Every structure is written in C-alpha cells, then in structure tokens.
C-alpha cells in the first residue's frame, strides 16, 4: 500500500480531497485491496489506470475493474477467480467532494445476465450527471463482447449494453454535480471506417473533459490496431480513430462535462510509446500535483491504440499514467515490445 492525501481548500471546490496511490495485483492472484483514509461514499469517485507486466491476451488477466468496497477500502479485481500469471500495476485516485458540495455519487456492482441490463437509480438531473464504469470478463480473448456501453437513459435508470450474453461484471458510478453541465452524445463507427467525427455543441476546452463507453454490435477477437482512441478534435467535434478497419460496428456513448471554470483541463490527442520502449515522459503545462489527476476517456479499458496488426497482448496495450512532478507525465506499459502505441489523455487540475 502506498498513498498520499491532499486537501484542496480554495476556489469553487473548497474542501475537495484527493488521495492517490499505487497497488499491484501480484502474479498468482486475481484481486487486491488497498486502504485509504475514510471517505463519504456518496461524495467520492474512483479513477485508475493500469499496466500488465507480462504478455497475456486472456481477459482473465486483461480487464481490471475497481470499486470503493467501503469507506476505507479499495478493491481491484481482474476476473471471477482465475489467478494472473504476471503482476498488474494500478495507479489510482480517489476524489472526495465536501459535505456541502452539490455532488452525489451512486455506485454498485452488476453481473450482466443479458445483452441489456437496466439498473435503477435514485433520480438524477440528466443535465448534470454522467456514468463511469469498469468491468472484467471471462471470455477467452480480447473480444468485442468484453466492451460494455453505459447510458443514463432516464433520470432513474442506468443501462448497460453488450454484444453478447456473457459473464461480464461491471463496477459502476453515477456522478451528479449540479455545478457542472453535462451533455450526452451517442454515435456509431461502422466496421469499414477508421475515423468517426461526432458533432457537439461548442465547448471551452480549457475547463471541459469527457468520458465514454463503447458497445459493439457483434462479437469476435479485437486486434490492437482496431481499438479506438478518442479526443476533442477542436471545440465542436469528438473524434474516434483507429489505424485499421474490421470487426463489427461500434457504438460510442460520450458524456462531455463542462466544469464551468472549476477544473483546468489539458488535452493530448496523440502521445506515443515507441517501438522497443516501455515508457514515455511528456512535458505538460505546470500543475499543482496535489490537485491534479490524469484521465483516459476510455475508463473501462484503459486502452491505447496499437498500430501493429494482430497483437492484442495486455503488456502491449495497457497504459499507466502517473504525474511525476508539476511538469512531467509518465506513461508506462508492461514491456518494451516491437509495437508503437498511440493513445489520448487529459490532465485535470482542480481549483
């Protein structure tokens, strides 16, 4: 266990607490827990990225889901009981908003029993709410049925969608923040395309971020170069790009979050870990490390976009993000493979 706690005591997010740490699901295990300073669950969010320390394309070891098990314990699980054959390193962040903030967080665990699963919510305001999910799956490859779309379809319903009936378990969080304005966009990419641009209402990139989830219309193995990365393509479009066509049609469910000046956001649409390397360091605009977190929009998978056809190994594809100091973001994958990995991310600094 290794964690830090920081309290933000100025600006519009007075009293926001950020804890961060790093934990490993060790070789031979499938689950790990980490202790944190106790938080109020309905005011707290969990974000994380991770990397695999050895090549393995089996989702028993590939998809990691995480949750606040209780007010003082985080739990990360990579499957339903099969042990890994290599370490999985996780970098996590827990954000706790103050008791007086207009923030409410609902959460839960759901095992999908069909292609569509509906989860009842306490009513939320759709204009100020968005979902965050992570999942694990027991299929035999990195496959499209591992992808789960999450959409708030009404004020009291969260809908999970998958291409097949499978043993996917989902950890979900629904965040309502009355100070932030949220817009939802749903779009599709056909199997024959490498780019899809989604029109959006104009945004201020300096204080706006987005999250998304992806569902597929069919199921089969996904090659590394068929995985999409997502980013703002200017102020009026969200972009989805992959180097190679194929597979099935994808549905993207985007939530664009305008923080109204409460969060400063840096955007990177294409960064890279080079062929033969397992890490990359990028100079970012100066941030207060105690107030900042890195964010990949594709939270459920933490995936980049591998340009080498046919390679879908966890060591190659998964990227751990870590803010080393005020001007340096470190990006790590499990091994120095013969693949160039491209990915997108954002840096969120809370005021």
Blueprint of the fold:
Elements: E1 3-7, E2 17-25, E3 31-35, E4 44-52, H1 59-62, E5 65-70, E6 73-77, E7 88-96, E8 103-111, E9 116-120, E10 129-136, E11 149-154, E12 157-161, E13 169-177, E14 181-189, E15 195-199, E16 208-216, E17 229-232, E18 237-241, E19 250-258, E20 263-273, E21 279-283, E22 292-295, E23 305-306, H2 314-317, E24 320-325, E25 328-332, E26 341-350
Antiparallel strand pairs: 1-2, 2-7, 3-6, 4-7, 5-6, 8-13, 9-12, 10-13, 11-12, 14-19, 15-18, 16-19, 17-18, 20-26, 21-25, 22-26, 23-26, 24-25
Helix content: under 10%
User: What's the overall average pLDDT, rounded?
Assistant: 86
Please state the oligomeric state of the protein chains shown: single chain
User: Major sheet: size, sense and barrel closure?
Assistant: 4 strands, antiparallel
N-to-C CA distance: 28 Å
What is the β-strand count? 26
Shape: globular
Fraction of residues in β-strands: over 45%
What's the number of structural domains? 1
Q: Give me the side-by-side strand order of the main sheet.
A: 1-2-7-4
Uncertain stretches of 5 or more adjacent residues:
none
Q: What is the chain-wise order of helices and strands?
A: EEEEHEEEEEEEEEEEEEEEEEEEHEEE
């Amino acid at each position: 266990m290794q964690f830090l706690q920081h309290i933000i005591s100025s600006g519009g997010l007075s009293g926001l607490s950020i804890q961060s740490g790093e934990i490993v699901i060790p070789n031979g295990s499938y689950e790990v827990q980490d202790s944190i300073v106790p938080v109020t669950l309905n005011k707290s969010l969990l974000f994380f990225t991770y990397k695999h320390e050895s090549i393995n394309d089996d989702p028993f070891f590939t998809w990691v889901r995480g949750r606040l098990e209780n007010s003082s314990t985080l739990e990360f699980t990579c499957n339903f009981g099969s042990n890994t054959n290599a370490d999985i390193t996780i970098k996590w962040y827990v954000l706790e908003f103050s008791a007086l903030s207009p923030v409410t967080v609902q959460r839960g665990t759901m095992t999908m029993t069909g292609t569509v699963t509906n989860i009842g919510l306490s009513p939320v305001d759709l204009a100020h709410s968005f979902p965050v999910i992570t999942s694990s799956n027991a299929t035999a490859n990195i496959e499209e049925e591992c992808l789960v779309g999450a959409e708030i379809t009404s004020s009291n319903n969260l809908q999970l969608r998958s291409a097949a009936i499978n043993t996917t378990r989902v950890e979900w969080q629904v965040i309502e923040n009355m100070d932030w304005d949220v817009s939802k966009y749903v779009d599709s990419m056909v199997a024959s395309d490498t780019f899809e641009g989604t029109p959006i209402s104009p945004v201020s990139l300096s204080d706006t971020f987005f999250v998304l989830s992806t569902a597929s219309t069919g199921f089969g193995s996904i090659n590394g170069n068929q995985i999409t990365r997502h980013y703002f393509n200017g102020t009026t479009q969200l972009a989805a790009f992959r180097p190679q066509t194929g597979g099935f049609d994808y549905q993207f469910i985007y939530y664009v979050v305008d923080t109204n000046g409460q969060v400063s956001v840096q955007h990177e649409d294409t960064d890279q870990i080079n062929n033969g390397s397992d890490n990359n360091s990028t100079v970012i605009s100066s941030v207060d490390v105690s107030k900042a977190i890195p964010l990949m929009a594709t939270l459920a998978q933490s995936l980049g976009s591998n340009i080498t056809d046919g390679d879908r190994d966890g060591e190659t594809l998964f990227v751990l993000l870590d803010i080393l100091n005020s001007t340096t973001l470190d990006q790590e994958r499990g091994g120095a493979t013969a693949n160039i990995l491209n990915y997108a991310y954002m840096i969120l600094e809370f005021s």
